[in-house]
Automatic annotation (TrEMBL):
GO biological process, one term: UDP-N-acetylgalactosamine metabolic process
UniProt pathway annotation: Nucleotide-sugar biosynthesis; UDP-N-acetyl-alpha-D-glucosamine biosynthesis; UDP-N-acetyl-alpha-D-glucosamine from N-acetyl-alpha-D-glucosamine 1-phosphate: step 1/1
Organism encoding this protein: Ensete ventricosum
Keyword Transferase: yes
One Pfam family here: UDPGP
Protein's UniProt keywords contain Secreted: no
Protein name: Uncharacterized protein
Bias type Pro residues, positions: 17-26
Alphabetic keyword roster: Nucleotidyltransferase, Transferase
Length: 494
């Protein structure tokens, strides 16, 4: 009888040693090495087969040449010399005090005419979650505490419906094509936004009137440009900023969709403004009258240190653009224009813009070629817990430097700008502050229309809410309000 030798091949057959894991796909690994990102596969050997598949698919979903170009150009631009800036020329701004009643009526009628001809589309920037508001829902779902309980989405949808009715009343035919509403979400808000609209039946808008599309994402990177891994099999990513609008419109073929609908002008705004005048006929009429490629609504800075971006001119005779407050030195924020008595740099950017469709098509190609993104240092989720890293973002206003012509249109903060950014208890831009601004504005409309208010709490703490379906900007209220008394807080409907 043969003796079994311990460690012999025969003895090992019952307990075979585990086979080594397969190596990463060679071609993909070589591509990562070309861009200095091979560390994405650093934990490959520790992954399960399913996790390896997820990692490969995640890397393959990245446009590596584009991502590498963006990272290199953006990191390389850090600390670069900024061109000298000048205050915006007075001739580029339509200020409230210089407008005549005739101007406003002409612009209103001209805007309604363009809307009645189907020439306006609206784009909503809605990629953000309400994290700072204490909510994981999309910001547009937020209820700021109005008597009606309406969300920001509903308020904006009803303002679109009201403008359509006003345009129909101004049109002899009595019918206007619905205003297309394009809503840009992010991977973090898309599904919840769609469900919210489905649940509320598009707030009365037609199904084919509302189109959702997603902005892109980009990898989060370390200070030396390497991918941060959220998990061993997933690159940490973040939305590419609201300036991702342009490439998203292009990749979704929505610019062609707009053209097919006969759109020539595009109104663009951010979701977190409770007083936004969506599809504003006056602004549209002014824009058409000026014949410029793009325009922006602005409000005057409330005080020199207010943390808002302001419009400037890049060099004498250069394009108008926005400088963030963090890029302004202390002397710039306090300089006074001796002839006007205003701050020299006083025109705040509030993300209320108008574009021609032709210009959007140009930007969709030009901005992507630029490849310089803003770098935001943030806490990034990673395999080591939250770590400091960089998010890469572009902003809507980055496109303004491409504009052959641009104009600014001043609006009053108390009428058109009530941002909802911080949770109640913060010192500014809260749901409470936005709600009070809206209630006070609508209270003024009621009094101007001949109505009266009673209240059991101080009036400065309350007011009335007028349904957007009744009035867009204070019009059409005499028949509803004259001689009537309303007890605040309440909602006024038909």
């Amino acid at each position: 009888m043969k003796e079994m030798v311990v460690g012999s091949e025969v003895g090992r057959r019952g307990t075979p040693s585990p086979s080594p894991p397969p190596p990463p796909p060679q071609a993909l690994l070589e591509r990562l090495k070309d861009y200095g990102q091979e560390d994405a596969f650093a934990l490959w050997d520790e992954l399960s087969p399913e996790e390896r598949d997820l990692l490969v698919k995640d890397i393959e979903s990245l446009d590596l040449p584009r991502v590498d170009r963006i990272i290199r150009c953006s990191l390389g631009s850090q600390g670069a010399y900024l061109p000298a800036v000048e205050p915006v020329p007075e001739s580029s701004v339509s200020t409230v005090e210089v407008r005549t009643l005739e101007d406003r009526e002409r612009w209103w009628k001209r805007g309604l005419k363009a809307i009645s001809e189907g020439k306006l589309a609206v784009v909503l920037l809605s990629g953000g979650q309400g994290t700072r508001l204490g909510s994981s829902d999309p910001k547009g779902c937020f209820n700021i505490g109005l008597p009606s309980g309406k969300s920001l989405f509903q308020i904006q949808a009803e303002r679109i419906m009201r403008v359509q009715r006003l345009a129909a009343q101004s049109n002899d035919a009595g019918f206007v094509p619905p205003i297309p509403w394009y809503i840009m979400t992010s991977p973090f808000t898309d599904e919840a936004t769609r469900r919210f609209f489905e649940r509320h039946k598009n707030f009365g808008l037609e199904v084919d009137q509302v189109t959702f599309f997603q902005q892109g994402t980009l990898p989060c990177v370390s200070s030396d440009g390497r991918f941060i891994m959220e998990t061993p099999y997933k690159v940490s990513k973040a939305p590419d900023g609201n300036g991702g609008l342009y490439s998203a419109l292009k990749s979704s073929k929505l610019l062609e969709d707009m053209a097919m609908r006969g759109v020539r002008y595009v109104d663009c705004y951010g979701v977190d403004n409770a007083l936004v005048r969506v599809a504003d006929p006056t602004f549209l009429g002014y824009f058409i009258d000026k014949g410029v490629a793009t325009a922006a609504k602005v409000v005057r800075k409330a005080y020199p240190q207010e943390k808002v971006g302001v419009f400037v001119q890049r060099g004498r005779g250069g394009p108008l653009t926005v400088v963030e407050y963090s890029e302004m030195d202390a002397s710039m924020t306090t300089e006074i224009n001796q002839s006007t008595g205003r701050l020299r740099y006083c025109w705040s950017n509030v993300c209320l813009h108008m574009f021609t469709l032709d210009f959007l098509n140009q930007v969709a190609n030009g901005l992507e070629k630029d490849s310089i993104y803003h770098l935001a240092e943030k806490k990034i989720p990673s395999i080591h817990g939250y770590t400091m890293g960089l998010k890469l973002e572009q902003f809507v206003f980055d496109a303004f430097t491409y504009a052959p012509s641009m104009a600014l249109f001043e609006v009053l903060r108390e009428e058109e700008f009530a941002p909802v950014k911080n949770a109640n208890g913060a010192s500014y831009d809260t749901p409470d502050s936005a709600r009070l601004m809206l209630l006070r504005l609508h209270s003024r409309w009621v009094v101007a229309a001949g109505g009266f208010l009673t209240h059991s709490v101080p009036l400065y703490l309350t007011g009335v809410e007028i349904s957007p379906l009744c009035s867009y900007a204070g019009e059409n209220l005499e028949g509803i309000c004259r001689g009537r008394t309303f007890h605040a807080p309440c909602e006024i409907t038909f």
